[in-house]
């Protein structure tokens, strides 16, 4: 069952995808809060500083990233969107690809929506 996804959330997700495939830490930073957490099945909760350091060092890079939102909710200055995402890239110089269910939680900060938490769940098992 799919819910209607507000257009601004689709735009936010698209901008976040573009930032991630840019592999530009500054561009990614504009999409996330200072306390953003990425939750992965492999490593659990990873703080913003760690994931941005890994991207900035070139250890992790993304070549493609897509998300198809299926559920969303907006309550005041908080919003969440869940969908299915796929991405490709490299980790530790090895090719990787992922097929995941992704939930992004957004918070409005100084008039701008920023992702404060991204939670990844593999579709059908391990990703990498």
UniProtKB/TrEMBL annotation:
Q: Which SUPFAM superfamilies match?
A: NTF2-like
The residues covered by the DUF4440 domain are 10-115
What Gene3D superfamilies does UniProt report for this protein, alphabetically?
Answer: 3.10.450.50
What InterPro entries does the record tag this protein with?
Answer: DUF4440 (IPR027843), NTF2-like_dom_sf (IPR032710)
Family annotation (Pfam families):
DUF4440
Q: What name does the UniProt record give this protein? A: DUF4440 domain-containing protein
